[in-house]
Amino acid sequence: MAAMVNCSYAADQATGIKEGVTSPLPLNGMVAAVKNGKLAFVSDNGRFVFQGTVYDTWSQKNIESLRDAELAYKTIDVKKTKFQVDDLNPLTVGSGDKTVIIFTDPFCPSCHVLLDDLKKVEGYTFKIVYVPLMGDESSKVVRAMQCIKDRESAQDVMLGQAKPQSIVGKAEVPACDTSPIAKRIVSAHMFGIKGVPFMIRDDGLIRLGYDKGELNNWLSAPGI
pTM of the entire structure? Predict the structure, then answer.
């Protein structure tokens, strides 16, 4: 969530507010809290209370309740942002009416499990975005995925059918355009992605992490 905060600090009120009902926010170190019917935004150590207006520029509305805070924390309404996943040159799997965006890394074990499961799901289009989040070797593989001449080998790696290192050092297309990789890194930072797999459902519901066999249940679960 991109947020603009108009705030004042009231450290002496933090203890009382933290005793009320709270909801996390997609802002590092912040929660929304209610005390005596009033909404405030509190640092996670309880020291600072931010009183005023928080405006979510993605959902285009003020955060005025714990429900609003919960929605901001658990969803990303991609349709209301300027984000275009196809600008990141994702791997597309499936051709269903509903689109699911998946950020992944070539060395992420649970991501490979997810890839195996999504191949069995119908009715969805999966946009798989490889981001080099796990170090230098990931960076080499993600570049090779983008630049290698042998596109079939690149796709085998992206689909988890070949080892990531198998395409590193192979012949690349001349003047390879790596700008989609830079856009992926910027997008991952924008969405606050700190681990993979990170999924965004068609209705905006997000999920971090994956265990085998859970995809269908998550896709069919009601929204929040």
Answer: 0.83
